[in-house]
Write a structure and sequence with these properties.
The complex is a heterodimer of chains A (285) and B (1039).
Chain A lengths: L14 E5 L4 H5 L11 H18 L3 E5 L15 E4 L2 E4 L10 H11 L3 E4 L12 E3 L3 E6 L5 H10 L4 E6 L10 E5 L2 E4 L3 H13 L5 E4 L9 E5 L3 E7 L5 H7 L5 E6 L2 H4 L10 E3 L6
Chain B lengths: L1 H17 L3 H10 L2 H16 L2 H21 L6 H21 L7 H19 L3 H17 L5 H16 L4 H23 L10 E7 L5 E7 L4 H12 L7 E8 L2 E4 L6 H5 L5 E6 L12 H17 L6 H16 L23 H12 L6 H12 L8 E6 L5 E6 L3 E6 L2 E7 L3 E7 L2 E6 L9 E6 L3 H19 L25 H9 L11 H11 L2 H17 L5 H16 L4 H15 L23 H17 L8 H9 L2 H6 L1 H10 L3 H15 L1 H13 L4 H8 L1 H11 L7 E4 L6 H17 L7 H37 L3 H21 L8 E10 L8 H8 L2 H24 L15 E7 L6 E6 L6 E9 L2 H7 L4 E11 L3 E12 L2 E14 L5 H15 L4 E12 H4 L3
Helix pairs in contact in B: 1-32, 1-35, 2-9, 2-26, 3-6, 3-8, 3-9, 4-5, 4-7, 4-8, 4-20, 4-21, 5-8, 6-8, 6-9, 7-8, 7-19, 7-20, 12-15, 13-14, 13-15, 13-18, 16-31, 18-19, 19-20, 22-23, 22-28, 22-31, 25-31, 25-36, 26-27, 26-29, 26-31, 26-32, 28-29, 28-31, 29-31, 30-36, 31-32, 31-36, ...
The chains are: A alpha/beta (285), B alpha+beta (1039).
């Protein structure tokens, strides 16, 4: 049914949009703080593994966009669009260098017959990484990349849902330290900023969410899917990266847990959710 | 005091009797100002005629017109009406001509015609409401076209009546006589055409209610009927049992909607507005599936469809389509390719901006719903609609502290703050400690966050005082409805909403669920009228089409895109607009004038003695300043430690019993808890006074009509209450602040107090929650209103006295004298007033005893203290028994004297009587110079008791006494159920003895007790609160 996404259908998806990473990523990708150099080959391997899980293990139809060397951050497709049900909002990324990422995204989303909305207001900025959809409502982090106007447009686009704003100060994105780990379950990092944001979200919401607190903020970004015949599926950071956080995830007995290493992209602030857009096409209209 | 009480009781009885019998009212009315009389007469005639369509329309316009005239003010008595009549007369003929014979404009003729029309309409009625609508529309059109002349159209009937009355010009002298004659005439007419109609002398007004399906319901109401009467009738008409989720709206203008308070007289609420209401969902059930009946869900669906089409409830494209498809399924049944051609959908409106694409989607989805019954389709509709983020959110425009435009959304869970479409904050009810408004500011006091120590108060600026008050009321009601736990009390279908006005007096959601569980009837059959209407139009029935066309035409003014239903509703609104243009300006002017005059620089004083918030009335008028001196002295005397009482507070306090002031918190709490209804009461009281004392009529009339301008102001000087009165009457932006105190445990002391209060809760056992807070809030809100209201009468009556004394005297004693006088006046007022309906009473008697302070305590109480708790209990029970006895007596005839437990040694005795339902208040205050130890007895009671008592002695159904005890509190509850004349009445008396050291916050405890009492019996009204307090001033004075 096309009804509003409740708890039950949350995480359902049929398609995923990903994008290959350009070599320019290593040198030109935006990053919050300097880290080690990105091993492109390894980054690619990790990404392929990631895509492979979506495609083969989970059976999604993966639409893979080619890399664009002029868009070093283009692998992080999440920031370019927000898709909820049948509607897709093409964002206006906060980083000017990323604005063109939406062009390819628009094409692919339209090919899926989604109701595509573009954010044309030049005063608006929005990164998909600042948008947390819980199944019941949206939280939009107001960060360096996302402003109020961008959030307003998101609210206008997804009228069914409450859209609450959450100040994000210490991190790149709202989802740099949190994500949905299941229906009604928010994975949240342990940093002060993360906890503060969680409190804000809890206050702003009419719903009560369970929370899964993990020691590492980065590990709190995980990818939840609800796959027929597999049930709850959670892609989370590998124990090699965040052993303590991985232990927390391992307590989720109802979830099919898939550890994913994301070492290289992490260096350029990439997280698990960043690298795909999940779409649920229930019917071909 | 006792004597006074007795008198009150009698009065109440009379009042009750009066209500049923219009005859009694007559004399009163006669005494009342000419204007009132006229209006009544007109209304009566209208009622008699009872032609639904014309009257309703006419009424609105006439009222608006009236306003300006009143606004003009001084001349209000007769002249305005006369003038109006003239203008109206022109209009009338047209309308009449349309419908029937072009008879004379005489009232009688009119009446005759009207009944005929009515009959016709009725005959055609149910099925063909649309015709009536068309008629209305036509009329409306006329009005629109000739706005100036025609405003009278709708009112034509009234106008005519008025004319008649005027013509005789015997008005004042023979008013009663005239009325009777007129009434008789009408009655005769009625007899001819509508033999069933009401007795001669009942003064009725025709009400029109726009229903959710777009049809209009009209009925004749007694002029003085309370909102509940109309609401019940509408619900009866709709065959709706789960009615607590619904309410009636009336519009001040196109976008200012007000909920009709069931516990108040309609007339007082709508003032000069037309008797035109809109049936509307008031509390959107968060989970519609928990509604018991399909018919209830159906009405909710209708409401939501309106909300969606009007844009109030934003939806995505997909949701619009989905909801639309369920609508089709519910109204048309399974998709039938043959019957449902490509156009079938265009008759429906699913969204503010409906596109072909959307319609296609709707059709597509409709096909998938095959097999769903209408009820199932409705349920699916609701299941999806309820998830919408703006479902059930009542939005109010406001600005934040920085002047940024925001929206405040009140919903089941709390208060939402939006900036543009973004939710920027949210305050769940449990987090809100206090809700208040002052002038155009709205405040919430928020519980400190986890790591914070202090609660914070957040203020919002609303467009005007009225808006702030509206928001506040909505908050109070929502909080109460959704947060309150239902009392254990058996659900009573009939006694929904009695109580003081400002708090929510209806059932809570929990209660209404409980009640609806008891619904035992086969699922009522009902037609989904909107579909019916639409299908008709589909069939090509010209009528239907015309309807829509007309509707659209009319609605064009208001809102273009709205659905048919909406259009009609809006028509109502727009009609008002159309009709009133000429008139409206004057009204506004008047208001402005008021505002200016009333504008007070008042300061708000928040008393922080306890967690309970004392609201501060802001009234800073020059007048007030004058009185400041006297007030300040009062302060010295009574509130020694009070930091810096400000005039406004003072006035409040002054009004409130002095002892209360001394006690400070308690008194305030009490007021908050139960004084609210006063405003309306004031009116009643005023009327009563008029009746009783013709001489004073002038004064009173003056205040009414002009309120703020003349007499009222004088009164204002003396007290805030006056100001409040003004508010009600003229809506001037006076800084009346009403506060809802949501008490939750904050500090140790408070906790103690709560403990004291818990016995009450013990009954509920585990139910106690944060929700308990809600009750308090409601109570507090009421109290404020009541305060205002109550005191007004005093002012008016004793204006002169008060002025003189207060101004002259700065001595507390003199003040006391004044108060005493006031009391007398009040009493008289009460006597005069004859309207009182008391269905349910909850009596809470609280006694707080402080050990060691018992110097002047009542012997009994002393003994309590000394004796073991068990003994205490027993004694209490005994006392209760006594009380009960009293109550029963009361019920029969005598006014309860429980209050008067005034004890011999009483140093300070204060009597405050507040009538919630009745809206009358008595306050008597006597004070003696402060002694270290004092005993105070404060009684708040509402005339209702008397009134109810006044009637026939009821048949005692059951009686039970429950006693519970906690550490510092003993509660004895006595429940008596009686049946009188088919109306069952349940009275609950509680005696709560709070014992403890000075550490105990008695005020808190009292407030808690009251709150709990209300919480437990949300659908009951507190009729009386007796507070007997023995304290050591030194310790307890918190000044």
């Amino acid at each position: 049914m096309a009804g509003l996404g409740g708890g039950a259908g949350f995480g359902r998806c049929s398609h995923a949009v990903v994008r290959a990473l350009p070599e320019s990523l290593c040198q030109q990708a935006l990053r919050v703080e300097k880290g080690g150099a990105v091993d492109f080959a390894r980054a690619e391997r990790e990404h392929q593994l990631y895509v492979g899980v979506l495609k083969h293990k989970l059976g999604l139809q993966v639409l893979e966009l080619p890399a664009d060397e002029s868009l070093p951050d283009c692998v992080f497709v999440e920031d370019a669009a927000v898709v909820c049900e049948e509607t897709a909002l093409l964002t206006r990324p906060g980083a000017p260098s990323r604005r063109k990422e939406t062009e390819a995204m628009k094409i692919v989303l339209e090919s899926l017959n989604l109701n595509v909305v573009e954010m044309t207001d030049e005063n608006a900025t929005l990164d998909g990484g600042d948008v947390l959809f819980t199944g019941r409502e949206f939280f939009v982090g107001l960060s360096k990349r996302t402003n109020q106007r961008g959030a307003e447009i998101l609210a206008d686009t997804f009228k069914d849902y409450a859209v609450s704003t959450v100040p994000v100060h210490d991190s790149l994105h709202l989802k740099s330290f949190c994500s949905m780990a299941g229906p009604n379950l928010i994975a949240i990092g342990s940093s002060e900023g993360a906890q503060k944001a969680l409190k804000t979200m809890q206050q702003m919401s009419d719903h009560r969410y369970d929370k899964l607190t993990v020691p590492d903020d980065a590990a709190a970004n995980c990818l939840y899917l609800n796959i027929p015949n597999k049930g709850h599926v959670l892609l989370h950071r590998a124990p090699e990266e965040y052993p303590e956080s991985a232990k927390v995830f391992e307590k989720l007995k109802d979830h099919m847990l898939i550890p994913i290493a994301n070492i290289e992209l992490q260096k350029v602030d990439g997280a698990l959710t960043c690298c795909c857009i999940l779409i649920n096409k229930t019917s071909e209209l | 005091m006792t004597t006074e009480v007795g008198s009150e009781a009698e009065v109440k009885k009379e009042a009750e009797k009066l209500e049923p019998d219009t005859a009694k009212e007559k004399p009163e009315e006669a005494l009342e100002s000419l204007e009132n009389q006229k209006t009544e007469e007109t209304e009566e005639t209208q009622d008699s005629s009872s032609s639904p369509v014309p009257t309703s329309q006419s009424s609105p316009t006439s009222r608006k017109e009236r306003d300006p005239s009143e606004g003009k003010g001084i001349s209000r008595f007769l002249p305005p009406w006369l003038k109006k009549q003239k203008s109206y007369s022109l209009v009338e003929p047209k309308d009449e001509a349309k419908k029937k014979a072009e008879g004379d404009e005489h009232v009688e003729e009119r009446e005759c015609q009207l009944p005929e029309e009515v009959a016709e309409l009725k005959g055609e009625a149910a099925a063909e409401n649309h015709q009536a609508k068309t008629d209305n529309k036509e009329e409306e059109k006329h009005s629109v076209s000739s706005a100036e002349t025609q405003p009278a159209k709708e009112d034509s009937k009234e106008i005519e009546v008025e004319k008649v009355t005027e013509e005789p010009e015997e008005k004042l002298e023979e008013e009663t006589g005239k009325r009777e004659t007129k009434e008789v005439q009408t009655a005769e007419i009625k007899m001819e055409k509508a033999p069933q109609k009401a007795p001669k002398k009942i003064k009725t007004v025709q009400c029109k209610v726009m229903l959710l399906d777009g049809t209009e319901y009209s009925c004749d109401l007694e002029k003085r009927a309370k909102g509940q009467v109309l609401f019940d009738r509408v619900c009866e008409h709709l065959n709706l049992l789960e009615k607590d989720y619904f309410g009636l709206l009336f519009y001040e203008n196109s976008d200012q909607k007000n909920w009709l308070d069931s516990s108040k007289e309609i007339k007082r609420q709508i003032r000069n507005l037309p008797w035109l209401f809109t049936f509307h969902v008031k509390f959107y059930p968060p989970d519609p599936s928990q509604l018991t009946e399909d018919i209830t869900r159906y009405f909710l669906c209708l409401q939501l469809r309106q909300d969606i089409v009007s844009g109030r409830l934003p939806c995505s494209f997909v949701t619009h389509a989905l909801l639309g498809s369920y609508t089709l399924q519910a109204e048309l049944g399974d998709y039938d390719p043959e019957e449902h051609n490509s156009d079938y959908i265009s008759e429906f409106q699913f969204a503010p901006n409906q596109t072909k694409e959307m319609e296609d989607k709707v059709v597509e989805l409709h096909k998938t719903h095959r097999g769903l019954t209408p009820a199932q389709a409705d349920s699916q509709f609701l299941e999806n609609a309820k998830r919408l983020s703006m479902y059930g959110v009542d939005l109010h425009h406001a600005k934040d502290s920085e002047g940024v435009d925001i929206m405040l959304g009140v919903c089941a869970n709390g208060l939402l703050i939006y900036k543009d479409r973004l939710r920027i904050n949210r305050f769940a009810w449990p987090k809100i400690l206090k809700i208040s408004y002052k002038r155009s500011n709205f405040y919430i006091k928020v519980r400190p966050a986890e790591l914070e120590q202090f609660e914070s108060t957040i203020g919002f600026k609303l467009p005007n005082h009225r808006a702030a008050k509206r928001l506040w009321k909505v908050c109070v009601e929502h909080h109460t409805f959704f947060r309150l736990i239902s009392p254990e009390q058996p659900a009573k279908a009939k006694f929904l909403t009695l109580g003081s006005k400002f708090r929510y007096s209806g059932r809570t959601q929990a209660q209404t669920r409980q009640a609806s569980n008891l619904i035992d009837r086969p699922a009522p059959y009902f037609e989904r009228t909107s579909s019916k209407r639409i299908s008709r139009s589909l069939d090509g029935a010209p009528v239907g089409i015309t309807d829509q066309g007309l509707l659209r035409d009319f609605s064009a003014t208001a809102a273009g895109d709205e659905a048919v239903v909406l259009a009609k509703l809006k028509n109502g609104e727009s009609r008002e607009d159309d009709g009133s243009p000429v008139k409206s300006p004057p009204l506004e002017l008047t208001q402005d004038g008021k505002n200016n005059s009333l504008k007070v620089d008042g300061e708000n004083i928040y008393v922080r003695h306890s967690n309970l918030m004392l609201e501060d009335l802001d009234k800073t008028q020059d007048d007030l300043l004058k009185h400041q001196a006297s007030i300040s002295e009062l302060k010295r005397n009574f509130m020694e430690s009070t930091p810096e009482p400000r005039p406004s507070e003072w006035e409040k306090r002054r009004i409130t019993p002095l002892s209360l002031q001394t006690q400070g918190q308690k008194g305030d709490h009490i007021f908050q808890g139960e004084i609210l209804p006063i405003k309306e009461k004031q009116w009643t009281a005023a009327t009563g006074i008029t009746e009783a004392k013709p001489e004073e009529t002038d004064k009173k009339v003056g205040p009414r009509a002009e309120g703020p301008c003349s007499g009222a102001r004088d009164a204002d000087k003396s007290s805030h209450e006056t100001l409040s009165v003004v508010e009600e009457k003229k809506r001037a932006e006076v800084g009346i602040e009403e506060t809802v105190v949501i008490n939750e445990i904050n500090g140790g002391k408070i906790q103690v107090a709560i403990d004291g209060g818990e016995p009450c809760k013990l009954e509920h056992l585990s139910k106690k929650d944060s929700s308990s807070t809600s009750s308090e809030s409601s109570s507090s809100s009421e109290s404020e209103d009541e305060e205002v209201g109550e005191y007004q009468p005093h002012h008016r009556v004793t204006e002169d006295v008060i002025k003189e004394e207060k101004e002259e005297n700065e001595d507390a004693k003199e003040v006391e004298g004044c108060t005493a006088k006031v009391v007398q006046c009040v009493e008289s007022v009460i006597e005069g007033s004859k309207e009182k309906i008391s269905i349910e009473h909850a009596q809470v008697a609280e006694e707080s005893l402080v050990e060691g302070n018992a110097v002047s305590g009542t012997p009994e109480e002393k003994s309590f203290i000394e004796e073991a708790k068990q003994d205490l209990r027993e004694e209490r029970e005994e006392e209760q028994l006594k009380i009960n006895g009293d109550l029963s007596h009361i019920g029969i005839d005598v006014k309860p004297q429980i209050i008067c437990c005034s004890e011999p040694p009483v140093v300070k005795t204060e009597m405050v009587t507040i009538s919630d339902a009745t809206q009358r208040t008595e306050i008597s205050t006597k004070e003696v110079p402060i002694v270290q130890t004092e005993t105070k007895t404060i009684t708040y009671e509402s005339p209702q008791l008397d009134g109810s008592a006044g009637g026939d002695a009821g048949v005692l159904l059951s009686a039970q006494t429950i006693t519970s005890e906690s550490v510092s509190t003993t509660t004895t509850t006595h429940i008596t159920k009686t049946v009188k004349g088919g109306v069952s009445e349940t009275r609950i008396e509680k005696r709560i003895v709070i014992t403890g050291d000075a550490d105990i916050d008695h005020d808190q405890a009292l407030a808690q007790a009251i709150k709990e009492a209300k919480e437990q019996h949300p659908d009951m009204s507190v009729t009386r609160v007796v507070v007997h307090k023995e304290t050591e001033l030194a310790e307890e004075d918190e000044g």
